[in-house]
Structure formats: structure tokens, C-alpha cells
């Protein structure tokens, strides 16, 4: 605290308070970044499971990352926000309970996959990663523009 000036501290408080009024552009970018993290883990997991790359020991870490990230999906979409870049359909906020249930499906599929990845049982891993892929697709089919 010794090095933090009162002026800087006051500035941080202002930044923290203004965070409640996020713009649509910022909200869209935030949730697209959140989706890219999911996409990055899934891409790496696919390459490992298909044997394209030799990073088998990293599979469980990707699975845990995916499971953690999947918990952020509902919150990232909670506030309605759209812009020209967004591929989100406005149905999300008209059918919020269904959208939220699809986010929950991903959370549980990702948690089960993380358990399987920790076990090292490749046939269980393949089955559970398939279920994760279905959970992604299940939501995109209804709520994401092609
Ligand atoms: C509950 C719904 C839901 C689930 C589950 C879901 N997504 Fe998405 N995803 C969306 C929506 C809606 C968009 C469009 C967001 C936007 O453009 O504003 C999106 C966009 C994306 C994008 C494109 C981001 C961009 O910048 O255009 C990627 C990549 C993606 N999702 C990957 C995944 C992966 C991988 C999974 C599963 C591990 C997944 N998503 C699960 C709803 C979901």
C-alpha cells in the first residue's frame, strides 16, 4: 500500500464502479473471448485424442481448463448485448431458461470429461469428449448464427 498514491487508488475505485455499465461491444467481445478459450481447448483436445500430436500427458490439464471455462458461459451471456460482429441470436434472451439449461449441459459434460481424462482410459475419454462436442453443437444449432 505504501506505493499506491491516493489519486491512483481513487482512480481504481472509479474504474471498479464503472464496470457495471459495460457497453454492448465490450460484452460481445468478452463472451467471444470466452468462447475462443473453449474452442482453443477443444482444438487441442481433438488433436491429442486423434493422435495427431504427442501431448497425451496434457490432456487432463486441457480437460480441467475446459471444465473451468464452461462455468463462465451462462454469466457471459446473462446481459443482453448484440452488435454487427456478434453471431448470437436474440432468442437467447427470449428463451433464457433453455439457453441456461444448454450451458448447464456443457458444464456437466465437461466435468465428466475432466474425470475421464484424469483416468487415462482412452475409450471413456473418446466417449466423454464426444458428449462435450454435442453440448457445444446443441447450443450453437439453436442460438448461434451459422
Ligand atoms: C449455451 C450455449 C453455448 C454453448 C454450450 C457453447 N457455445 Fe459457443 N457460442 C455460443 C454463442 C451464442 C456464440 C455466438 C457469440 C457471439 O458471437 O456473440 C458462440 C460462439 C462460439 C465461437 C465463435 C466465437 C467468435 O468470436 O465468433 C466459438 C469458437 C465457440 N462458440 C466455441 C464453442 C465450443 C468449443 C463449445 C463447447 C466446448 C461451445 N462453444 C459451447 C453459444 C454456446
From TrEMBL:
InterPro entries: Cyt_c/b562, Cyt_c_II, Cyt_c_prime, Cyt_c_prime_subgr. Residues 1-21 form the signal peptide. It holds the Pfam family Cytochrom_C_2. Keywords: Electron transport, Heme, Iron, Metal-binding, Signal, Transport. This is Cytochrome c.
Amino acid at each position: 500500500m505504501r506505493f499506491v498514491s491516493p489519486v491512483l487508488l481513487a482512480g481504481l475505485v472509479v474504474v471498479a464502479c464503472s464496470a457495471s455499465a459495460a457497453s454492448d461491444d465490450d460484452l460481445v467481445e468478452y463472451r467471444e473471448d470466452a468462447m475462443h478459450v473453449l474452442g482453443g481447448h477443444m482444438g487441442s483436445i481433438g488433436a491429442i485424442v486423434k493422435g495427431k500430436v504427442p501431448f497425451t500427458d496434457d490432456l487432463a490439464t486441457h480437460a480441467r481448463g475446459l471444465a473451468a471455462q464452461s462455468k463462465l458461459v451462462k454469466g457471459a451471456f446473462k446481459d443482453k448485448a448484440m452488435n454487427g460482429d456478434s453471431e448470437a441470436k436474440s432468442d437467447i434472451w427470449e428463451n433464457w431458461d433453455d439457453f441456461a439449461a444448454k450451458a448447464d449441459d456443457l458444464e456437466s459434460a465437461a466435468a465428466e470429461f475432466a474425470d475421464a481424462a484424469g483416468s487415462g482410459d482412452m475409450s471413456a475419454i473418446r466417449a466423454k469428449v464426444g458428449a462435450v462436442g454435442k453440448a457445444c453443437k446443441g447450443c450453437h444449432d439453436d442460438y448461434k448464427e451459422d
